[in-house]
Amino acid sequence: MGAILSKKEILNLLDSSNPLIQGLIDRNTQIGENGVDLTVGRVSKFVSEGAVDFSNQERVISEVQDLEFDELGWIRLETGAFRVEYNEIVNLPNDIVGIAMPRSSLIRCGVALVTSFWDAGYRGRGKSTIVIFNPKGFRVKRDSRIAQLIFLFMKNPSEKGYQGTFQGEDIE
Fold first, then answer.
1. How far is CA 114 from CA 86, 100, 125, 156, in A?
2. Which residues lie below 8 Å from residue 78, measured CB to CB, with a gap of 6+?
3. Taking the model in full, what pTM does it have?
4. Among 73, 77, 63, 60, which residue's Cα sits nearest to residue 131?
5. CB–CB of 7/34 below 8 Å?
6. 3-class SS at 27?
7. SS3 at position 116
8. How would DSSP label each residue in 36-81?
9. Domains of the chain: residue spans and CATH
10. Tell me: the pLDDT tens digits for 15-55?
Protein backbone atom coordinates (compact mmCIF):
# COMPACT_ATOMS: atom_id res chain seq x y z
CA MET A 1 0.00 0.00 0.00
CA GLY A 2 1.24 3.51 -0.80
CA ALA A 3 1.80 6.05 1.96
CA ILE A 4 2.70 9.72 2.47
CA LEU A 5 6.38 10.09 3.28
CA SER A 6 7.21 11.31 6.78
CA LYS A 7 9.73 13.99 7.71
CA LYS A 8 12.26 11.30 8.60
CA GLU A 9 11.86 9.59 5.22
CA ILE A 10 12.13 12.92 3.39
CA LEU A 11 15.31 13.79 5.30
CA ASN A 12 16.83 10.41 4.41
CA LEU A 13 16.03 11.01 0.73
CA LEU A 14 17.53 14.52 0.88
CA ASP A 15 20.80 13.01 2.07
CA SER A 16 20.93 10.35 -0.66
CA SER A 17 23.24 10.40 -3.68
CA ASN A 18 20.33 11.70 -5.81
CA PRO A 19 18.62 14.13 -3.40
CA LEU A 20 14.83 14.29 -3.54
CA ILE A 21 14.97 18.12 -3.54
CA GLN A 22 17.84 20.45 -4.41
CA GLY A 23 18.13 24.18 -3.83
CA LEU A 24 16.38 24.50 -0.49
CA ILE A 25 16.83 27.96 1.00
CA ASP A 26 16.53 26.77 4.62
CA ARG A 27 16.16 23.05 5.17
CA ASN A 28 14.95 23.45 8.77
CA THR A 29 12.18 25.87 7.76
CA GLN A 30 11.07 24.17 4.54
CA ILE A 31 10.86 20.55 5.66
CA GLY A 32 7.70 19.83 7.60
CA GLU A 33 6.17 16.74 9.11
CA ASN A 34 4.35 15.88 5.87
CA GLY A 35 6.23 17.50 3.01
CA VAL A 36 8.52 20.21 1.72
CA ASP A 37 7.62 23.88 1.25
CA LEU A 38 8.36 25.21 -2.23
CA THR A 39 9.45 28.82 -2.66
CA VAL A 40 8.91 31.51 -5.29
CA GLY A 41 11.76 31.90 -7.74
CA ARG A 42 10.01 33.73 -10.60
CA VAL A 43 6.60 35.22 -11.27
CA SER A 44 5.48 35.72 -14.86
CA LYS A 45 2.42 37.02 -16.66
CA PHE A 46 0.85 35.11 -19.53
CA VAL A 47 1.28 36.91 -22.86
CA SER A 48 -0.06 34.41 -25.40
CA GLU A 49 -2.84 31.91 -25.85
CA GLY A 50 -2.24 28.26 -25.00
CA ALA A 51 -3.85 25.10 -26.37
CA VAL A 52 -4.14 21.40 -25.52
CA ASP A 53 -5.26 18.39 -27.51
CA PHE A 54 -5.36 14.64 -26.97
CA SER A 55 -2.03 13.70 -28.59
CA ASN A 56 -0.06 16.85 -27.66
CA GLN A 57 0.79 17.33 -31.35
CA GLU A 58 -1.19 20.59 -31.38
CA ARG A 59 -0.39 21.60 -27.81
CA VAL A 60 0.80 25.18 -27.42
CA ILE A 61 2.37 26.27 -24.14
CA SER A 62 1.51 29.88 -23.35
CA GLU A 63 4.39 32.32 -23.54
CA VAL A 64 5.15 34.32 -20.42
CA GLN A 65 6.97 37.49 -19.51
CA ASP A 66 8.84 37.61 -16.20
CA LEU A 67 7.78 40.27 -13.73
CA GLU A 68 10.42 42.18 -11.79
CA PHE A 69 10.68 42.13 -8.02
CA ASP A 70 11.15 45.61 -6.54
CA GLU A 71 14.27 46.65 -4.61
CA LEU A 72 12.86 45.05 -1.45
CA GLY A 73 12.04 41.80 -3.24
CA TRP A 74 8.26 42.26 -3.64
CA ILE A 75 5.86 41.98 -6.60
CA ARG A 76 2.31 43.33 -6.41
CA LEU A 77 -0.18 41.26 -8.38
CA GLU A 78 -3.58 42.49 -9.52
CA THR A 79 -6.58 40.19 -9.95
CA GLY A 80 -5.76 37.53 -12.53
CA ALA A 81 -3.61 34.49 -13.23
CA PHE A 82 0.20 34.35 -13.15
CA ARG A 83 2.79 31.61 -13.49
CA VAL A 84 5.13 30.85 -10.60
CA GLU A 85 8.39 28.96 -11.01
CA TYR A 86 9.83 27.41 -7.89
CA ASN A 87 13.42 27.77 -6.69
CA GLU A 88 13.75 24.10 -5.84
CA ILE A 89 14.66 21.28 -8.22
CA VAL A 90 12.68 18.08 -7.63
CA ASN A 91 14.20 14.64 -8.34
CA LEU A 92 11.46 12.05 -7.93
CA PRO A 93 12.58 8.43 -7.98
CA ASN A 94 10.45 5.91 -9.88
CA ASP A 95 8.63 4.85 -6.72
CA ILE A 96 7.54 8.28 -5.45
CA VAL A 97 4.99 10.78 -6.81
CA GLY A 98 4.36 14.33 -5.62
CA ILE A 99 1.28 16.43 -5.07
CA ALA A 100 1.67 20.18 -4.53
CA MET A 101 -0.87 21.97 -2.37
CA PRO A 102 -1.21 25.68 -1.52
CA ARG A 103 -0.11 26.88 1.88
CA SER A 104 -3.15 28.02 3.84
CA SER A 105 -1.98 31.65 4.01
CA LEU A 106 -2.84 31.99 0.31
CA ILE A 107 -6.38 30.76 0.85
CA ARG A 108 -6.85 33.24 3.68
CA CYS A 109 -5.81 36.07 1.32
CA GLY A 110 -8.18 35.21 -1.54
CA VAL A 111 -5.46 33.56 -3.62
CA ALA A 112 -5.50 30.11 -5.22
CA LEU A 113 -2.57 28.00 -6.31
CA VAL A 114 -3.30 25.74 -9.27
CA THR A 115 -0.99 22.75 -9.22
CA SER A 116 -0.62 19.40 -10.88
CA PHE A 117 0.42 15.86 -10.11
CA TRP A 118 4.19 15.30 -10.21
CA ASP A 119 4.91 11.96 -11.88
CA ALA A 120 7.33 9.35 -10.57
CA GLY A 121 10.70 9.84 -12.26
CA TYR A 122 10.16 13.59 -12.89
CA ARG A 123 13.20 15.83 -12.55
CA GLY A 124 12.93 19.57 -12.91
CA ARG A 125 12.00 22.96 -11.55
CA GLY A 126 8.22 22.85 -11.27
CA LYS A 127 5.67 25.53 -12.01
CA SER A 128 2.19 26.42 -10.81
CA THR A 129 -0.40 29.05 -11.58
CA ILE A 130 -1.27 31.56 -8.89
CA VAL A 131 -4.72 33.10 -9.27
CA ILE A 132 -5.51 36.33 -7.45
CA PHE A 133 -9.21 36.54 -6.62
CA ASN A 134 -8.82 39.26 -4.00
CA PRO A 135 -10.07 42.51 -5.64
CA LYS A 136 -7.46 44.45 -3.64
CA GLY A 137 -4.61 42.41 -5.12
CA PHE A 138 -1.83 40.44 -3.46
CA ARG A 139 1.86 40.95 -2.77
CA VAL A 140 4.37 38.13 -2.95
CA LYS A 141 8.00 38.32 -1.89
CA ARG A 142 10.84 36.50 -3.63
CA ASP A 143 11.62 33.19 -1.91
CA SER A 144 8.31 33.12 -0.01
CA ARG A 145 6.91 29.68 0.79
CA ILE A 146 3.66 29.25 -1.15
CA ALA A 147 3.25 25.50 -1.75
CA GLN A 148 3.75 22.29 0.14
CA LEU A 149 4.87 19.30 -1.90
CA ILE A 150 3.82 16.02 -0.36
CA PHE A 151 5.29 12.72 -1.49
CA LEU A 152 3.48 9.42 -1.92
CA PHE A 153 5.36 6.14 -1.99
CA MET A 154 4.07 3.81 -4.73
CA LYS A 155 3.51 0.16 -3.92
CA ASN A 156 4.84 -0.80 -7.37
CA PRO A 157 7.47 1.52 -8.91
CA SER A 158 7.06 2.91 -12.41
CA GLU A 159 9.11 0.90 -14.90
CA LYS A 160 10.28 3.91 -16.93
CA GLY A 161 9.39 6.96 -14.87
CA TYR A 162 8.29 10.24 -16.39
CA GLN A 163 9.36 10.55 -20.06
CA GLY A 164 7.44 13.69 -21.06
CA THR A 165 8.37 17.03 -22.60
CA PHE A 166 8.96 18.70 -19.25
CA GLN A 167 11.58 16.25 -18.01
CA GLY A 168 14.61 18.28 -16.88
CA GLU A 169 12.79 21.61 -17.27
CA ASP A 170 14.58 24.78 -16.25
CA ILE A 171 17.61 23.13 -14.74
CA GLU A 172 20.67 25.20 -15.49
1. 13, 9, 16, 28
2. 132, 137
3. 0.93
4. 77
5. yes
6. helix
7. coil
8. EEEEEEEEEEE-S--B--SSSTT-BPPPEEEPPP-TTSEEEE-SEE
9. 3-48+72-153 (2.70.40.10)
10. 988 999 999 999 999 999 999 999 999 999 999 999 999 99
